[in-house]
């Protein structure tokens, strides 16, 4: 009996053990399945949350970028004549390349949307895009206004938009970055190469010297305040390349009509037949043949003038001098000419085509600011970070010195050769009065000058002077046609382009 009981007990125990083991295995399997299910559920939830966050970040970034764009333009528009009208700085508008991307953001994005799908284009509210829409709406009837507001920049500029110089909602630097210089029309201006650079390695700062745009003042300040040097040679020169690669590159520009008068006076004296130094038109009085000289393209400018004294006696007649035999007072005295010199200027302005400057001082400002090597390609563009106006050069140079050097900047006071500081900010250089009397220059002549310099007016966003800005009725309409800027969209480059509406010889772009 005992033996059978023990056998039953062992059988029961074995059965219980098997059952327990089965329960354990089942429990483990169930736990594993629950773990996998819960893990998968958490992963799906995490991916979903990440997508939501990413979408929100994209929206916030886009909104922030648009706000930054508007802030940048507003800060640029806030500049006035008291501190370099419409100048831009790298600290206020990021770097030069970043600024161009900001201004062109709408154009690039709208073009991509327009070319890649047929759905509604995304509309960005940067000031340039809004301005373009406004211009198109002004020129369209009420039925097309709603459709204009829904178009991309590429669509809006599918046909050129013509506008008055100085009316863009952009700084001068931003406008310059949109500038297109026709390489055929302006090849002789581009051929002159960029402006001479003054480079301060100590402050990683370069200044572009543009003739008749405050360059003597800039040269003086760079040498005395920034310990700068002027590397010579072309862009292939190592020292020149280093200057172009400076972290900060600044330049000053000048109102084009005012600059043209100074350009003309400078070129007049430098290419006169009596000027010997570096003058291909010099006439040697001791050489009866003068076989090696070039014939001046405008010889009528010097009729009856065989020497500088002959020229000087016209703008400073002996009868008007304190001492008729003393010529020194003529150097800085206002002109007393009788209209002879002004008439020659007017004839020159009408005959000059604006495409073939025969002296470096006649080259426009924009080609000196855009290209390192004299080409019009984007790869050779100069990375200008700050652009100022000569109207307030003296105070601006003080601001620049304090910005880079600090409050300990020497800020040396320089004077002109007659120990006077010229109005308009000239603190060093050849600051002489005009030799012709401007009162004899007619309005039609000034309009022609504005046309010759239209590239500078359009690409530097300078407003036209009153003598060039139109009159009443049909005259105003004609002026808008003859002195307009042109805006179009470069599909290949993906950006808005600004250029003159007419070429210097009057041909429409």
Structure at a glance:
The chain has 509 residues and is α/β, with parallel strands linked by helices. The protein has helices at residues 2-77, 90-93, 96-116, 127-138, 145-149, 153-156, 172-177, 187-191, 215-225, 238-244, 256-270, 308-315, 340-351, 366-370, 393-404, 443-452, 454-459, 474-482; strands spanning 161-163, 196-200, 205-209, 248-253, 386-389, 485-490, 495-500. The model is unreliable at 50-124, 414-424 and 471-477 (pLDDT under 50).
What is the secondary structure topology, with strand pairs?
Elements: H1 2-77, H2 90-93, H3 96-116, H4 127-138, H5 145-149, H6 153-156, E1 161-163, H7 172-177, H8 187-191, E2 196-200, E3 205-209, H9 215-225, H10 238-244, E4 248-253, H11 256-270, H12 308-315, H13 340-351, H14 366-370, E5 386-389, H15 393-404, H16 443-452, H17 454-459, H18 474-482, E6 485-490, E7 495-500
Parallel strand pairs: 3-4, 4-5
Antiparallel strand pairs: 1-6, 2-3, 6-7
Helix pairs in contact: 9-15
Unreliable residue stretches: 50-124, 414-424, 471-477
Assembly state (oligomeric): single chain
Whole-angstrom Rg:
35 Å
Major pleated sheet: 4 strands, mixed
Our measurement of the CA-to-CA distance between the termini, rounded to an integer number of angstroms, reads 124 Å
Cross-sheet strand order for the largest sheet: 2-3-4-5
* Helicity range: 40-55%
Q: How many individual β-strands?
A: 7
| Secondary-structure element pattern, one letter each | HHHHHHEHHEEHHEHHHHEHHHHEE
Helix run count: 18
Mean pLDDT: 77
Q: What coarse outline follows from CA principal-axis ratios?
A: elongated
Strand content: 5-15%
